[in-house]
Write a structure and sequence with these properties.
single chain, 4 helices, mainly alpha, globular
Length: 74
């Protein structure tokens, strides 16, 4: 999820078809790196949505990691 959110943040600066193309490329690369399919990701994300407590816990860790990476860049 960290990679997904970082990719989304980068793609937000783009517009139109370019944004869609870049987003799709990012997603494909992320799924390849993590050895999962889009379907597997969607299923896992749906499971998180079905369990708000677990989703909160996961997103706490996602935000911690994003903040850690941001601090390393600064």
């Amino acid at each position: 999820l960290v990679d997904i959110h970082l990719a989304e943040a980068m793609a937000q600066k783009l517009y139109g078809e370019l944004k869609d193309t870049v987003s799709q490329t990012y997603y494909e690369q992320i799924f390849t790196i993590h050895h999962i399919t889009r379907e597997q990701f969607d299923e896992a994300y749906q499971q998180l949505q079905d369990d708000p407590k677990l989703m909160f816990q996961v997103y706490e860790k996602v935000l911690e990691e994003i903040n850690r990476q941001e601090a390393q860049v600064k």
